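pasting for ref
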Amino acid sequence: QVQLVESGGGLVQPGGSLRLSCAASLSIFSISAISWYRQSPGKWRELVAFITSSGSTNLADSVKGRFTISRDNTENTVYLQMNSLKPEDTAVYYCNALLRRGAFWGQGAQVTVSS
């Protein structure tokens, strides 16, 4: 099992930036992939970005060019840098860790983009 703690959410104006953090209780090298999902009211939870244990990354088309996923190996933390935020980015952002024995979720971090 792994515990995931998200931080960094908040209220930001359109065009602004936020950085979300996902701190894992295990070495991130022991986790197959860590992903960021988001969910807005009335919508399905959607995959935003992921990074594998080997360092490969992928981003959803809706955030390419604006968001970046990265990690700090020594801190066992994955980051989601969000730039040029839009009102449609407003959602609860969840961190997900995929291990052989299953998938685990963080508690979520609210991101609100509004003027």
